[in-house]
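To close the chapter, one final illustration. This time we ask the reader to focus less on the individual chains and more on the assembly as a whole: which components sit near each other, and how the overall shape emerges from the parts.
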Amino acid sequence: MTQIKQTPTHCCSEVNNSNAYTLGPIEAGPPCCEPDPAIRVQNLTLSYGGQSALDNVSLDIYRGCITALIGPSGCGKTSFLSSINRLTDLIPNCTVTGKVEIENTDIHAADMDVQALRRRVGMIFQKPNPFPLSIRRNIQMPLREHGVKDRALLETKLQTALQDVGLWDEVKDRLDSSALSLSGGQQQRLCIARALALQPEILLMDEPCSALDPLSSAVVEDLILSLSGRYTVVIVTHNLAQARRIANYAGFFWAKERTGKLVEFGRCQQIFESPAHELTAAYVSGARG
Amino acid sequence: MASIHQRDLLLTGFVWSAAALVIGSFLWLLSDMLLQGAGQLSWDFLTAETENAGRAGGIAPVLVSTLLILAVAILVAGPIGLATAVLLSEFIAKDNRIARAIGMSIDVLAGVPSIVFGLFGMAFFSAYLGLGFSILAGGLTLACMVLPILIRTIEEGLSAVPDEWRKGAAVLGMSRLSALFYILLPAAAPALAAGLMLGIGRAMAETAALIFTSGYVDRMPSSLHDSGRALAVHIYDLSMNVAGGDANAYASALVLVIMLIIINNIALMLANSLLQKRISLA
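The assembled structure is written out below.
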């Protein structure tokens, strides 16, 4: 399935699509042999025009793993996600303090190239948002923007990206038709392909399955699982069963007086089976939230 | 007390008769023009020089002047309007002080009677800038007049483009300029065309602002500095000041309406084909 050449820097890349490590016993060891932070968040505080939305969040996100962020609506999960690729820059009156480091580089540094940052950190939204262009242009336009001019290379990258998301066979005969003619699930996979074509290191996903029907949702979920090891994935989800199925690590957010806080972070299995905090226990068991 | 069914009938009847009234008045206007003017209409009428103050001859100089005035107005107002609309909808927040100041200026400008634009044009373009009674002065005056329409329609069109595409472009590391040119403006193409259409429509129908600025002269213009008579001015002059000019006034009005319908359709076609092309472009 994969055609993207990446040297396996991490043992996760050798584990193939296996659910075993998230559902298996704790004694089997962490899913990533030596958890190695790709993103380090320290004392992140975020507010919208004075109203604090996220308070003092510190968290390491491990390379090659899938990290799920769970918690009720309005607890700052999406705000947290948006501060990793500085999408918060687009929101007027949004102030971010604290430190976010990606591979030891402070993303708020004065000399940070935000466009280059966003190429390294892809993002998928809840509602599929393909551009009102052809399937081909949806994938090739961002590539051109980042300096890929060679036609043959553009075509190869188009095919690779679509193959990576399992869309190639479905659309190869109609690459020039509008992306808006695809079904919801196909559109979402196209959006993932569009992000993958830029060869990012990190993928941020904001409830990528919640606007899809159950069958498409399952296809996208399998796809996300297949990305683990090759990409560092941070996924916001309200579907606890999904988080449990696909994530290696999980962070539980909870809002107090409209300000979100990270209550607990740990191995996915630990969060779901032996949470340390009573709020987490109540949420994952369905008693609260 | 009427039954629900009867009230329903009454409402349906009212809605239909309102629609019929609209269509009816348009047809009445059109048939009146056709009856009175179609007889005068011929290829010669469109291509011949104006004679005897418009009572005889054709409207060729008037058509040329009209198109030149329009071209000046649209070429000047188009880019300025587009840039302002893009600034308002993409680059500054709605509640920003500058945005509010610009917005208020546009709304006031839109409400100014055309005769005032005519006086302003005469004082500023004709007198102060020394353009005199000329097609240039008339075109520039019209540009000021259609600017608010252009800005508002384009701005609304851009605002109607879903925010997801802006965010989508941003998270792919695309610059705002690329997002604007490759995604947002093509998506707003129908609104752009509509704005252009409304602007052209307003400019073509304008009389008062042009009497003071581009003048009455019905000779064929040899440059933009010549005075030129617009079609609407020609119609006004024939029906108000020239005895025996009614027939040609009707024929000219018919030409004006046909031109508007043609331009309307061209703009719609352009918008549609632009959308199609964007979607199929490899």
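The interface with chain B takes residues 85, 87, 90, 92, 114-119, 122-123, 125, 127, 129-134, 136-137, 141-142, 145-146, 176-178, 191, 194-195, 198 of chain A (CB under 8 Å). The first strand of chain A starts at residue 37 and ends at 48. With these observations in hand, you are ready for the problems at the end of the chapter.
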